[in-house]
Specification:
Layout lengths: L13 H4 L3 E4 L2 E6 L2 E12 L4 E12 L5 E2 L1 H4 L6 H20 L7 E6 L1 H6 L5 H10 L6 E5 L7 H14 L2 E7 L6 H7 L3 E4 L1 H9 L1 H16 L3 E4 L5 H10 L3 E2 L21 H12 L5 H21 L5 H4 L1 H5 L3 E8 L4 E7 L1 H4 L21 H8 L5 E2 L3 E3 L4 E12 L2 E12 L5
Parallel strand pairs: 4-6, 6-7, 7-8, 8-9, 9-10, 10-11
Antiparallel strand pairs: 1-2, 2-3, 3-4, 3-11, 4-5, 12-13, 12-17, 14-16, 15-16, 16-17
Helix pairs in contact: 3-5, 8-9, 8-10, 10-11
């Protein structure tokens, strides 16, 4: 790995980097400390569009014998902030040179940039704007990807990300959920795309609870205004987990490995059609799980409400059949303001399973449930049985499904609710 950097490259501008690039039959290469650098691209797919929507640019280094050099070894070579900046800019220059002549003139190019390089660079990275102008690549086709690394200068990082956004580029946070890439960074930088750390997918492959957490994180990121990309997808099962989680984009060896054969990439396509058909087959029975519950329990609710309203029975008498059903754990009555009337009725089978660690949560007399969606639904649409998706109940830290039906009694709107234990996975 011989070679030295010219002294003037301590402040690497575009015209000083240009001589380091060479074009051959397969595209552009760059020379760095005696190594030859090449661009590899890995396709990124949109699940809904069932096609490629972008490519991540990755650097590949080779020594004088054309033997590959590990990327970690390459990025260990710089011995100063200036050399770090040079290598970062040289890689981006090389990737954009290659991509600007790429046959695909529609999709995104994802470029990695380290927060440490950002913090040590100039406040406005004019180099990048000049680079896009020189190569003719529109900024809206670039996704600047902030790689997960610590930086003490959060303000500088935010300013630089804002510069790329003002330039017209999209921005992405890489490895979300690992190290320093968390919601704090999302709030600080307002990225367009969030790339989830592969460890989340690995855990979700074997752990059902981790899969639910993955789905929840995707939902939260969507609510934050971010599109979500899941990388590191290596198996068909992981691809199906990604589809079920609701991510927008996928990337990984299962679909396509990074390739330096750039001209061949646009012809490669993943069979997302087949994957989506498989997903639909596996989930067909669960397409509308609430329908079976409403069909089955509507009669129980109508009978209990009739006993309350017309026969004047007590809550315990009216709900006897509901409480004896093996799936029902609790019944309770709520007024139109969401305030619970009397305490919760607990089925005999549930009493035997109550976890004493959560005893402070058991008494719910006068509890206020108005913020619960199932209650507001029942108030807005009385005489219909409403069913929630599974959620963690605060009354026992267990996963449950709540059924609710609004009705009028003595001129007042009330709501009869019952909980069905979905599983014991919420217990620790």
């Amino acid at each position: 790995m011989s070679g030295a950097l010219p002294e003037q490259l301590n402040s690497p501008e575009l015209e000083l980097l240009t001589p380091l690039l060479t074009r051959d039959s397969s595209g552009w290469t760059a020379n760095y400390l005696g190594l030859v650098l090449r661009t590899a691209l890995q396709p990124i797919y949109s699940i809904s569009h069932k096609r490629v929507v972008g490519y991540e640019a990755l650097i590949r280094a080779f020594d004088t014998d054309n033997a590959p050099v590990l990327p970690s070894h390459l990025f260990d070579l710089p011995v100063s902030d200036a050399e770090n900046l040079l290598l970062d800019r040289l890689c981006r220059y090389l990737h954009i040179r290659n991509y600007s002549g790429f046959e695909d003139q529609l999709n995104w190019l994802f470029l990695n940039v380290s927060p440490q390089v950002v913090a040590n660079g100039t406040r406005a990275d004019s180099f990048f704007g000049q680079l896009l102008e020189k190569t003719g690549l529109p900024p809206h086709r670039i996704v600047m990807e902030i790689v997960e690394q610590p930086t003490d200068d959060a303000d500088r990082l935010r300013e630089t990300v804002q510069y790329y956004q003002k330039l017209g580029c999209l921005t992405a946070i890489d490895d979300f959920g690992a190290g320093h890439s968390n919601f704090e960074r999302i709030w600080n930088l307002s990225p367009d795309i969030v790339k989830l750390d592969r460890a989340m997918l690995t855990r979700a492959t074997d752990d059902h609870k981790a899969r639910q957490i993955l789905n929840g994180i995707v939902s939260l990121l969507h609510q934050s205004g971010c599109l979500v990309l899941l990388e590191g997808v290596e198996t068909r099962d992981q691809a199906l987990i990604a589809i079920d989680a609701g991510v927008d984009f996928v990337q990984g060896f299962y679909f396509s490995r990074p390739s330096m054969e750039l001209m061949d990439l646009p012809g490669k396509a993943a069979n997302l059609e087949d994957l989506l058909l498989d997903y639909k087959r596996r989930n067909q029975v669960r397409m509308d799980p609430t329908r079976q519950l409403t069909d089955f329990f509507t009669g129980y609710f109508e009978q209990a409400i009739s006993s309350l309203v017309e026969s004047g029975q007590s809550m315990r008498e009216a709900c006897t059949e509901l409480l004896t059903h093996p799936t029902v754990s609790r019944c309770y009555l709520v007024d139109h303001n969401g305030i619970q009337l009397d305490d919760t009725l607990v089925s005999d089978s549930t009493v035997d399973c109550l976890d004493p660690r959560f005893r402070p949560l058991e008494s719910t007399t006068r509890a206020d449930w108005y913020r619960q969606h199932y209650l507001r639904q029942a108030i807005a649409e009385p005489d219909l049985l409403h069913v929630t998706a599974p959620y963690l109940s605060v009354t026992g830290a267990s996963m449950c499904v709540t059924l609710s039906m609004g009705f009028r009694h003595q001129g007042r709107l009330q709501v009869l609710c019952c909980d069905i234990l979905a599983s014991n996975e919420g217990r620790h």
